[in-house]
Each structure stands twice: as C-alpha cells, then as structure tokens.
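Readers outside the structure-tokenisation community will struggle with the description of the input data as it stands. I therefore recommend that a typical entry be quoted early in the introduction. An entry of this sort, consisting of the sequence and the corresponding backbone structure tokens, reads as follows:
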Amino acid sequence: MTGTIPTHPKRLDQEQRLSHESWKIFQIMSEFVQGYETLASIEPAVSIFGSARFKPDHPYYKLTVDIARKLSDSGFAIISGGGPGIMEAANLGGQKGSAPSVGLNIKLPQEQKPNDFQDVPLHFQHFFARKVMFVKHASAYVVMPGGFGTLDELAEILTLVQTGKSRRIPIVLVGISFWQGLLDWIESSMLAEGTISADDLNLIHLCDDADAALEAIFSFYRTRGVAATDEERKKLLNL
C-alpha cells in the first residue's frame, strides 16, 4: 500500500500558535483585573438578565425599568449585560434611581449594541470572564424572560449556589407565565429522576411584579446584612 503520510505543522508554526495563546492569557487576565478593580466598590448590586429582543414598548421592558429603578432607589447598583432589550431597560431603570448603573458589554455578531444608560461601562471579549463579574459582585439575580443566553446565566448561578462554589443569594424569576413551564419540567423530570434534590427548588423565587421581586430580595437579607460574610468572600475568591 502506497501513499503519503500527512506531515505535522512546522515547529515554527507551533511556536507561533503557542505564543498567540500565551498572549491571550494576558488579555483574559486584564479583563479580570479591570472588572475586579472597577466593581470592587460598587456594592451591593443586583444582576438583571433577559432578552435583548424586547423593545421599549414591551410590558417586560417596562417592568424591568420599574424593578431596576426601585432596586436602585433602595441602594442596589444595577448590573446588566450592557446591550439592548432587557439589558437596556435594567440600565435605564438603574440610572433613574440613586445607585450606579453598570453594563458588562461584550462584542457579538448580532443583538449586542451598548445602550446609552450605563454610568459604569465595562467591555469584555470573553464570556467566561464577564460571567464571573455577574456572579462575584451580585447580591441577587433577577431573571426576566429571555433566550439561550438568559438560560445560560440562570443555569450558571444555580449550579454555583447548589454546589457551594458561590454564596447563596436570591434568584428571582420574573414572569410566571413564561417560567412556569420550565419549573414544572424541572420538578417532573429532574426532581422525579433524582438529578436534583427537593431543596434545590427552594433556590428559585417566582413572581410577576416589581414589588414581589423586591420583597423576595429584601426578605432574604432581613435577618442578615447584605454584605458577604468572611466565609462567603472566601468562596467568591474561588469562583
């Protein structure tokens, strides 16, 4: 049997690729350093998620503005993904209140254009660095109706809290008609098959309006301070 054996790339090409990957590490480090230093003094904060596709006349957009404004007036900085839709609504509501409005922007081929309501804009190339900022600096998560990205952020915080890698914080799903089917499936499939425990369902608060969302957060911190304890800060260092 005859034929040619494919040759491996030249060593020079390998070294060039390795050099490129090494420099990417420094870029990633710079995103973490910038995020940590910028957000270190912005606390307490609530991270708000939801679809980039909702327009300003949509009820969920208007509800998000209301929630963010009330949280901001209560002393919570608002953190969003910095883009349009629910992210814009969150920053708009945050800016109308008394606390800072933060945007964690990222470059995407579509659906991501920085909104105009960010007091503190940060820019990321890497999703995972950006996701750490959402978790590390949040005292609560408010999750509005959204798509795959919103589900990703929801699954991320649920996993980190469930496994003890992050401190326990309120995780509030807003929009009963939107989220109820997912929660029913989690209970009928995941819980029924034993892939989660019954207590895991208690990590999630489901509601339909701004006052109920705020009450879910306030009631969690009513018997303890909103600041992370020393033990919780140690957890956050190991995210």
